[in-house]
Design a protein that fits this description.
With about 210 residues, this protein is an alpha+beta fold. Helices cover about 30% and strands about 20% of the residues. It is built from 8 helices and 8 strands, in the order H-H-H-E-H-H-E-H-E-E-E-E-E-E-H-H. The strands form 3 sheets. Strands 5-4-3-8 form a 4-stranded antiparallel β-sheet. A two-stranded parallel sheet has the order 1-2. The radius of gyration is 16 Å and the shape is globular.
């Protein structure tokens, strides 16, 4: 962990916002249901992570509408892209008092070649480990994200110079992500609205598993 991350204030990663609306009754109820009997932040995080990873369907994998953004809508409809699923996981964990942020990678849409887009995941602040990244996008053949602190096991590894692991942990979704999701009326339209950020430096620090 870098000195910067050690000194980051945690309050922004606990607040309820427009898209991470953990004060919504449905979020509170689901978080309480999922974490019943949990004694530690590790148990709480793993329960919520595995629910979002396994029970909320990835919109692109399953071709499910609507295109969700707000955490409570992701929970209601049971589907979301990686960004939306990360909003839901953040909301569930924040509702239980666990600081949770949003992280992004830049990845190739097609393995080994462009175009490129942002991929959304989470970082959670654990008492015994500090900030720890985890990816609830949903497993499938070739994708095996797990909760194994302090070791990260993310969904995707970087393969190309144009790909990147962004080091920032954001308390709120990036505007480009919200704009892309909001402008897509269906999962089919979203294929033409992938959010992306240009980078000028080669990517470093490979993490995760083989890309699907």
């Amino acid at each position: 962990m870098t000195p910067l991350l050690k000194t980051m204030p945690l309050a922004p990663y606990l607040r309820s916002t427009e898209f991470i609306d953990h004060a919504h009754p449905s979020i509170i109820a689901k978080a309480d249901e999922l974490t019943q009997g949990c004694q530690t932040d590790l148990e709480t995080t793993q329960r919520c992570f595995e629910f979002v990873r396994d029970e909320v369907k990835h919109s692109g994998d399953f071709k499910l509408n609507p295109v969700t953004i707000r955490a409570s809508d992701v929970l209601t409809h049971g589907t979301g892209y990686c960004y939306a699923k990360s909003h839901l996981l953040a909301a569930l964990l924040r509702s239980k008092g666990i600081p949770t942020g949003l992280c992004y990678q830049r990845l190739a849409v097609n393995p080994g070649r462009g175009p490129f887009c942002l991929h959304g995941l989470n970082a959670v602040h654990l008492k015994d480990h500090g900030w720890y990244r985890l990816d609830p996008r949903g497993n499938k053949p070739g994708v095996c994200a797990q909760f194994t602190p302090p070791v990260e096991q993310l969904a995707f590894a970087l393969q190309l110079p144009q790909e990147c692991d962004f080091p920032e942990i954001w308390p709120d979704p990036l505007p480009v992500v919200i704009e892309s999701l909001s402008s897509a009326g269906s999962v089919e339209e979203f294929f033409n609205h992938y959010p992306d950020i240009e980078i000028t430096q080669p990517a470093t620090g490979l993490t995760g598993t083989q890309r699907a």
